[in-house]
C-alpha cells in the first residue's frame, strides 16, 4: 500500500455475459452504421455506455447521444431527432471514469490499510474472529454524520426553563400572552434568563409572578390592568413549494409512509417505467423551459386521473379552463440554470391506464408527486398574521427584595412586556390541492384569537391571572432515513467554505441515484441501525468503533468538505476547467500522504479506551 494501478482493467461479470454478447454483436454488425446511445442522461449513464463500447471494441461507427428526461413517445422522438455526436460528451465521460477510479482507490486502499492496522483490536473487542473495516468516500462521510449526531445527543444536558404567562380575554375569547424582557424591564441584563422570554430558575419566575399579582385591583375584578402597546395585522402569502427532486420525495415518503429511501426509489422507478412520471434520479426541483412551454400536455393527460380521495382531473380542468398554466416558463418553477441532467419529477399525464393496478403505497406516491405538480399553477395561500404587545407598569415596591434582580436606581419603576401572536388562513390558494387522501387533516391551534385584533393601541387589557409554564431544552433529533437523504443533498449547510458550499449545493454528498444505496450498505454492514417503524437511523457499536478508527487516522474522510472538494474537481473536469491528469495527480497524492500517515502512527491504546467508553451506551 498504497495500491495505485498504472492501468485500470475491466471485465464483464458472468451474470450479464450472455446479454452483453447480444449487445456486442448488434454494435459490431457490418450493416449497422449508426448507433444511438440511450443510456440514462447523466454522468453514470454516460459511463455505462462507454464501458460497453470499450469492452465490445466498437469502432468506425457514427455514434449519437440521445438525451431525454421522460419515456413518453414524443420525448423519445425528440431525443432521437436532436441527438448530438457522442464526442460532445467526452468530458462528461472523463469525469465518470475519474469518479469510478476515485471510489475504487479510496475504498481499496483505506479499507485494507485500516483493516490491517486496526481490525484486530475491533475483532477482539467485539469477540469476533475477523472484523473488516470498510471505508468509502461517501459512505464514511455519512457514517460520520450519524455518529456525530448521536454523540451530540449523548452529551446533551437538559436545561429547565420557566416562562411567565398572563391570561386575558378579548371579545369573549380567552388567550395567553408570554412575558418577554424589554428595555425597561427589571430583568434587562439579568444573568439567569433563558433566552429573552424565560428564566433558568423557578424562583425568579415566581418572583415576577408575585410582583405582577401584587398589582391586582379589587375594584377591577382582581385583574391587573395592562396597556396595549401594539396591535399589528399583517398579510402574509405562502407560495406553492418547488417541485420534487428525488431527495425531497424520499424525505416526504419517509415521513408520510415510513418507507426507506431505497423503497421510495424503487416505487418511483416503477412509476417511471409505467410512463406515469418523469425520470426519478434528479437533483433539480424546477422545469426546463422547453418542458414548461409544453406543460399543457401533462395537464391534459391528468384530466383522465380519477383516484379514490384524489380527483386530479378536477384540478387539471380548473387550471386549463383558467389558463393558469400560461407563463409558467417565466416563473420560479422554471430555471434552466438549476438543471444539470434532469428536471424535476412530475406526472407525465401518460400511462394512466396503469393506475388501477398500483398497490396502495405506489398510488400514494403518485398522488404525492401529482399534487405537488398541480399546486404550482395555483395562487399563493394568504394568511392574516396578528400580533399583540401589552405592558404592565410595576413600581419598585412590587418586588420582594430577597433574591431580586439588580436594582436600576432608587425610586425607579419598571415595565414588563407580554406578547402573543396568531396566524389565520384567509385564502387557501394552492393549499386546497395539498389535502392528501392518506393524511388526517390537522386543526391548527391558535394562541391568539382573531377577536384580539379588535383591541386598539393604548387601550386597556385586563390580565385575570398569571401562571408559570415549565419546560426544558431538547437534544438534537436523530436523522431519519429521509432527513439523512436531505442532509446528504444539502451538505452545504455543514460546510463553512463558501465556494465549496456553492459547489456542493444541488449535488451534495453522493448523487440522487446513489444516496439510498449508501444508506442500505451502511445498514447491511451493521454500521447503522434503521428502525422500520420510524425510519430513525442510529449507529451501532461497530459503526461507532469504525468512526473512532477513521477519526484518529484519516479524519477528513468523515467530513463533507472532502466529498465537496472531490465533487468540485469532477465538475471542473466535466466543464473543461482542469484536465483528468490534474485530478488524478491530486487524488493519488491524497492517498499517498494518508497511507504514509496511517503506517507511521499507532492509536491502538487510545482507541481501546474510546471503545470502552462507547460500549456502555450499547446493549
Apparent shape: globular
Strands ordered across the widest β-sheet: 4-5-10-9-8-11
- Tell me, rounded to a whole number, the average pLDDT: 91
Main sheet makeup? 6 strands, antiparallel, barrel
How would you sum up this structure in a few lines?
Helices cover 41% and strands 15% of the residues. It has 619 residues and is of the alpha+beta class.
Sum up the structure in keywords.
alpha+beta, six-stranded antiparallel β-barrel, globular, 619 residues
Describe it.
The protein has about 625 residues and is an alpha+beta fold. It contains 19 helices and 13 strands. The protein has a 6-stranded antiparallel β-barrel. The protein has a 3-stranded mixed beta sheet with strand order 1-2-3, with no helix packed on it. Strands 6-7 form a two-stranded antiparallel sheet. Helix 2 (about 45-55) links the parallel strand 1 and strand 2.
Describe the secondary-structure layout.
Blueprint: H1 17-27, E1 34-37, H2 43-56, E2 62-65, H3 73-81, E3 84-85, H4 90-126, H5 139-155, E4 160-170, E5 173-180, E6 193-194, E7 198-199, H6 202-213, E8 224-238, H7 246-257, H8 261-273, H9 289-293, H10 296-302, H11 312-322, H12 360-375, E9 381-394, E10 414-427, E11 460-472, H13 481-489, H14 498-504, H15 515-524, E12 528-530, E13 537-539, H16 541-553, H17 560-575, H18 580-600, H19 604-615
Parallel strand pairs: 1-2
Antiparallel strand pairs: 2-3, 4-5, 4-11, 5-10, 6-7, 8-9, 8-11, 9-10, 12-13
Helix pairs in contact: 1-2, 2-4, 4-16, 4-17, 4-18, 5-16, 7-8, 7-13, 8-12, 10-11, 11-12, 14-17, 16-19
Amino acid at each position: 500500500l498504497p495500491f495505485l494501478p498504472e492501468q485500470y482493467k475491466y471485465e464483464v461479470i458472468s451474470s450479464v455475459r450472455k446479454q452483453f454478447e447480444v449487445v456486442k454483436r448488434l454494435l459490431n454488425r457490418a450493416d449497422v452504421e449508426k448507433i444511438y446511445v440511450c443510456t440514462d442522461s447523466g454522468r453514470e449513464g454516460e459511463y455505462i455506455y462507454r464501458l460497453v463500447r470499450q469492452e465490445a471494441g466498437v469502432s468506425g461507427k457514427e455514434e449519437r447521444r440521445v438525451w431525454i428526461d421522460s419515456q413518453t413517445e414524443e420525448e423519445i422522438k425528440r431525443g432521437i431527432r436532436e441527438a448530438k455526436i457522442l464526442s460532445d460528451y467526452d468530458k462528461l465521460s472523463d469525469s465518470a471514469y475519474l469518479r469510478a477510479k476515485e471510489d475504487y482507490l479510496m475504498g481499496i486502499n483505506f479499507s485494507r490499510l485500516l483493516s490491517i492496522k486496526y481490525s484486530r483490536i475491533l475483532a477482539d473487542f467485539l469477540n469476533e474472529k475477523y472484523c473488516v473495516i470498510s471505508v468509502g468516500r461517501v459512505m464514511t462521510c455519512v457514517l460520520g454524520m450519524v455518529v456525530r449526531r448521536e454523540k451530540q445527543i449523548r452529551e446533551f444536558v437538559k436545561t429547565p426553563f420557566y416562562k411567565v404567562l398572563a391570561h386575558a380575554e378579548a371579545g369573549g375569547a380567552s388567550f395567553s400572552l408570554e412575558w418577554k424582557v424589554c428595555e425597561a424591564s427589571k430583568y434587562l441584563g439579568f444573568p439567569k434568563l433563558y433566552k429573552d422570554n424565560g428564566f433558568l430558575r423557578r424562583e425568579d419566575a415566581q418572583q415576577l409572578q408575585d410582583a405582577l399579582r401584587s398589582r391586582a385591583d379589587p375594584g377591577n375584578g382582581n385583574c391587573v390592568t395592562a396597556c396595549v402597546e401594539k396591535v399589528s395585522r399583517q398579510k402574509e402569502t405562502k407560495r406553492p413549494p418547488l417541485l420534487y427532486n428525488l431527495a425531497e420525495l424520499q424525505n416526504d415518503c419517509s415521513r408520510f409512509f415510513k418507507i426507506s429511501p431505497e423503497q421510495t426509489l424503487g416505487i418511483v422507478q416503477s412509476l417511471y417505467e409505467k410512463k406515469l412520471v418523469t425520470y426519478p434520479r434528479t437533483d433539480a426541483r424546477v422545469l426546463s423551459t422547453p418542458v414548461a412551454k409544453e406543460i399543457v400536455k401533462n395537464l391534459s393527460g391528468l384530466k383522465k386521473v380519477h383516484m379514490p380521495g384524489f380527483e386530479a382531473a378536477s384540478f387539471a380542468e380548473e387550471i386549463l379552463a383558467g389558463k393558469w398554466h400560461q407563463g409558467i416558463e417565466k416563473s420560479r418553477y422554471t430555471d434552466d440554470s438549476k438543471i444539470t441532467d434532469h428536471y424535476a419529477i412530475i406526472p407525465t399525464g401518460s400511462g394512466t391506464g396503469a393506475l388501477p393496478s398500483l398497490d396502495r403505497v405506489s398510488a400514494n406516491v403518485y398522488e404525492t408527486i401529482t399534487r405537488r405538480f398541480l399546486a404550482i399553477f395555483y395562487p399563493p395561500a394568504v394568511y392574516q398574521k396578528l400580533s399583540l404587545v401589552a405592558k404592565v407598569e410595576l413600581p419598585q415596591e412590587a418586588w420582594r427584595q430577597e433574591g431580586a434582580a439588580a436594582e436600576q436606581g432608587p425610586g425607579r419603576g419598571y415595565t414588563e412586556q407580554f406578547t402573543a401572536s396568531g396566524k389565520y388562513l384567509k385564502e387557501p390558494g394552492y393549499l386546497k390541492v395539498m389535502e392528501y387522501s392518506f393524511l388526517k387533516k390537522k386543526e391548527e391551534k391558535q394562541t391568539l384569537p382573531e377577536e384580539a385584533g379588535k383591541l386598539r393601541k393604548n387601550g386597556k387589557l385586563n390580565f385575570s391571572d398569571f401562571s408559570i409554564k415549565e419546560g426544558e431544552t431538547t437534544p438534537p433529533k436523530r436523522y431519519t432515513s429521509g432527513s439523512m437523504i436531505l442532509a446528504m443533498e444539502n451538505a452545504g449547510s455543514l460546510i463553512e467554505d463558501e465556494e465549496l458550499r456553492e459547489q456542493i449545493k444541488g449535488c451534495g454528498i453522493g448523487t440522487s441515484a446513489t444516496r439510498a444505496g449508501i444508506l442500505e450498505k451502511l445498514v447491511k454492514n451493521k454500521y447503522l441501525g434503521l428502525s422500520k417503524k420510524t425510519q430513525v437511523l442510529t449507529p451501532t457499536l461497530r459503526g461507532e468503533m469504525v468512526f473512532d478508527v477513521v477519526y484518529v487516522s484519516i479524519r477528513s474522510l468523515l467530513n463533507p468538505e472532502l466529498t465537496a472538494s472531490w465533487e468540485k474537481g469532477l465538475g471542473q473536469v466535466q466543464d473543461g476547467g482542469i484536465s483528468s491528469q490534474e485530478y488524478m495527480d491530486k487524488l493519488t497524492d491524497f492517498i499517498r500522504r494518508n497511507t504514509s500517515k496511517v503506517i507511521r502512527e499507532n492509536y491502538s491504546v487510545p482507541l481501546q479506551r474510546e471503545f470502552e467508553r462507547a460500549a456502555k451506551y450499547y446493549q
